[in-house]
User: Fold this.
Amino acid sequence: MNKKHNKEIIRLLANMENNYPPDDLIITYADYLRYGQNLPYYKYNPTVLECLTDLTIKLWESPKRIARLDLLTTIKQYTSVAHAEAEHSDSHFKKNLISMIYLQIELKPIYFQYLNGYIAASVI
Assistant:
C-alpha cells in the first residue's frame, strides 16, 4: 500500500472508533505531522489541545520550516470538535490563543485574518 492509502485507512479507523486521544498524542512536531490530520476525528481532549497550542507557540518563531497555516487549521478544526462535545473554558487555551494572535500580527497578516472569525466567536 502507498502512503495515501495508509493515511486514509488511519483516518477511517479514527472516525469509526471515535476514541479519546491519549494526552501525549501530539508533543513534538513529528507527532503533529503523524497524527495532526486525524485529530478532528477523535473526541475532544483538552490536554491534547493544550499541547497543540503550546507546540504552535514554541515553533512559531523558530527558524525551522513548519506548516504554520496547517497548525492553525488543525487547532480550528479540533476546537470545533470541542464545541460540539462540550464548552471548553480552559484559561490556558485562551492564553495560548492570545499569544498566537500577537505572533500572527508580528509576522504575517494572513494568519491573523484566518483566525479572526474564530477569535471573535470563542474568546469574547
Observations:
- The chain has a mean pLDDT of 75.
- Residues 3-122 form one domain.
